[in-house]
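Researcher: Before we compare anything, I want clean individual predictions. No alignment, no superposition, just each chain on its own. First chain goes here; please echo the sequence and then give the structure tokens.
Model: Echoing the first chain and its structure:
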Amino acid sequence: MLVHRGMAVGGMSQSPIVHVDRSVRGGYLDRTVTRSPHTPLDECSHVTAYEAVSGGCGQSHVLTSSGDPFIAWINFGTPPGLTSQNVHMFISTTEAPAAGVPHDAPFAHRFPLTAAKACLVLGPIAAIVLDGQAP
């Protein structure tokens, strides 16, 4: 449904993919990706979980509700096997870019409403994902 809506609305933007070790900041991300894949994170309206043919798994948590004028979601992907502790993350949104902000500005500056919603979900790892802060 999200993909269909995004295609109908157009203007989909995506943050750069960030690879975060699941143990940083007290293991917040590890707890996030190992909880039930059928339970949306706090502040999220829906979740979709999937497993790829390669064995990688992922979750997409919807950051917006039907009352928001745009759609945004955050994706968490784990590679196949147990050797990697990294989770691949990115945020997608149909929010219009902020006026007067350069195209090459950080995602959080270009899409402030989406970034604010993502901060609520990401908690202690928000600065790593949105601002590029070192873990």
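Researcher: Okay. Second chain, same rules.
Model: Second chain and its structure:
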Amino acid sequence: MRWRPHTDKDGKQHPLYHLHPFRYEVVMPAKDGRPETVVAVHVGFGMHCFTKKVEKGDDPSNRYADDREERTFDFERYEHSKRLRTIARELQQRQCAFAKNENFVCLDLTDANGERLRYGVFFNIKKWAGQGRGDNAVLLVIQSAYCLDPKKPDPCRGKIRFNVLLGHALRGTTPTRPKR
């Protein structure tokens, strides 16, 4: 999905081209008799990366909708979303964890200025075959990303490496979730 820019009440445009889909490649090293594999990672972004739930008192001029839902454009989420392309490309070097449902999470602990915060990046991943993509392609969708409330529990439910997630996606299997 290519998100259209948001225009605020003062007429200022907030472009969202940094959240347009993109593709990059990851090399999975040979392991356990499996050869080295180059994986095409196709990345998409959900609207929750730059919007929040509509709340009483939100400025109606900041409404943002697609064909499924209407939310409020969130300027803080928008600013942090500018780092999501880099975070997506770095998942192989970052610690990932299980989150609710079929999602996984990566926590980023600093902002662009080096200030400490807990920024949760929630994503899912699946094999993406067909249309000339080959056998080694996955679709990674960053569903949501936002600063976590320090008063709420950590969303992580057990660690998992990104290469393990890639392997499961390519095989069409599901990693075993940790017991609660």
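Researcher: What stands out in the second chain?
Model: The helical segments are 75-81, 84-89, 162-171. Additionally, The first helix runs from residue 75 to 81.
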